[in-house]
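As described in the Methods, two query proteins were run sequentially through the folding procedure within a single session, without resetting any intermediate state between them. The first query and its resulting structure tokens are shown here.
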Amino acid sequence: MDDLSVTIAPLRLSGFDSLPKDARRCVFWEVDPGTVGPDGLTDAEFEKEAWLSMVMLEWGSCAQVAFSRVDGMDRMVGWAFYAPPRSVPRSALFPTSPVSADAVLLSCVSVEPGLDRAVAEDLVVAVCEDLMRRGVRAVEAFGLADGAVPPSECELCQCDTSPLVQASLLEQVGFQVVAPHHRYPRLRYELTEGLGWKAGVEHALEQLLAASLADATLTSSGAVPAGC
């Protein structure tokens, strides 16, 4: 599937049923394990949809999805979820908790098996771009170190994919480790730096344009710049 043309867009609540089964059923992050009885959850999909509805209503967009057109239909092939830490009960239970007060938590990034890793990177970038536009200062995530296994408390993750983001994927995009751990490091990406970089590029382009216009004016007037 590496050659699929993929488009990334924010998830709308109306698109919940189009999510792959793993994305609909995984509530590892969204449900407080202390509230789950001995028999587990009776309807994980209901819990996930209810969480999405609550966060979208109170906070706004909280998922980016990647989809590809197959046989004339759009099929979702990847997803990334993110939200304020207060809306993600599991975020307080990691050895590298808590998430910084000025950051949004990127909880999960996953793509269908066989899909190029670049799609996962693009999903992370889409999350960062969305939050940058909304004035968020930083994004943090609990990474899964290379070779480490997901948490043993995965009874709420009723799917075949890991609920954690690979730390190496986050580092590839530009995240930095701020809380080291042999299994679950916490990583951070400063969105203000991204804004500063963009502003710097725009300023440099404006200077180049101004210089080009000045040269054109001098040439048309027959003047020669000093020092030539």
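Immediately afterward, the second query was submitted; its sequence and tokens are:
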Amino acid sequence: MDEPIITSVKIENKNRTNQTQIDAKKATEKIMAGELYGVLATQNNGHPYTSLMAYGYSSDLKKIVFITPKTTRKYQFLEACNNVAFQVDNRPKIIKSIMTIESLTATGTAYKVDANKKEYNYLRSLLLSKHHYLEYSSSSPSSALYCIKVKHLFHVVRLQEVSVITP
């Protein structure tokens, strides 16, 4: 898995008169809390694949959880290769300025959560707290609950200013 080529930084916002700085961790928490869906990037035999996903996350930003039916391509790809990326952004339906959009990409490893393990109910509750309508499918034997162990979070503002967060 790639390592970041930059270190964690706070980005100075020169457009504000008081020269305040953006706190990347707070901005990341706001994006994760404010959005319902993200894009999961998987791979298979060197080919990338993306999927729109409902997600939940831990307050320390170390875990992102989602479910998938076991009959999907994404499930097969996750079983074959656990290196993933997960992207969330806050773009509005009507964009007044592309410079206001913030994006977050989490990189890490995904693992299927065993329903018999202690962490299962906790991780499932993270997902259901945002997506209560997934109650039935998240408990179905034909679905799998996955957790991404986040290694790095890349927060991007104004298209090119990047902060790296290591939770």
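Residues 1-21 have pLDDT under 50 and may be disordered. We note this only descriptively and draw no conclusion about the first query from it.
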